[in-house]
User: What shape does this take?
Amino acid sequence: MIAIRGATSVEADTPEEIRQAVGELMRAICEQNSIAEEDIVCILLSNTADIRSLYPAKAAREAGFARAALFSAAEPDICGALPLCIRVMILAEKDIRPRHVYLRRAAALRRDRARFSVALDGPSGSGKSTAAKQLAKELDILYLDTGAMYRACAVKAQRAGVTEFTEESVAPLMASLDLRVDYVGGAQRTILDGEDVSEAIRRPEVSLAASRISALRCVRKKMVEMQRKIASERSCVLDGRDIGTVVLPAADFKFFITASVDVRAKRRYDELKGKGFDVQFDAVRREIEERDRGDETRAFSPLRRADDALLVDTSGMTAEEVVAFLKKKIQERV
Ligand code: DC
Assistant: This one.
């Protein structure tokens, strides 16, 4: 038997909001703990005193959790408590380490939730970013696309008119770099010198420049520092080239995601075509090979599988299959 804790919040005390928030919380708890409704023995819910329009237990029953013994209670009106908050304790017949789930504003309460980090490394087009993004969403943890940060450095250099990337030409730009990573509706936005460059960094001409600039020590030093700081604050998935080897060598989970050059080139080609760029398949394939060479052979933090990273070849897998595989591996051990 395990006890799983969870909490969520609503923005307004309405039955619809409560139904939605409780349903979402219950489903997230089941998914993240790989439990089904029939594994649940009892569900104890509580709500802050400012919630009066619907018993959260009723909302849980309406969300399909009708078999277990349900109980709802109002909490005392504690001064300074997070408003409009619903808490849950679930007892389930299962022999796993529970994963407690804190959603919405209640995420601020999850000090008791074990923090963990996932490192996803691999070459361009391996599908790691797509997988990392979806994985983070499903686990309700932060996703940091570190490639976006190197891309922003390349844009910065290009805008400054620097074409030859050397320590001498790029170090002054790094010293004055104003780079921020923000999250809007869960999606990462890359802000360079106060401007949102999230789209600009995806332009094809930025890819090779990012690979080149990322070989410089002054760039890597600055980026790794920033990435470690972001990752130290909460559970996260980071994807890149050196996450498992350099940025987070003590990451709880490490995967090395790869795929054949042809599959990777086809994915990148489809992605660029989908965005309306006029590109040729052969040119995309050549560029992927060139980037691989650059990323694998550079002196500082080359692309390399960490000894303790699990190799995942995604050539014959769909994006959904990759995410399901990673999630299963993580949940087996969390
Ligand atoms: O993942 P991406 O294609 O957006 O990355 C752009 C370039 O940045 C890539 O060619 C290599 C570099 N990079 C890196 O050196 N280290 C990382 N952790 C992430 C990206």
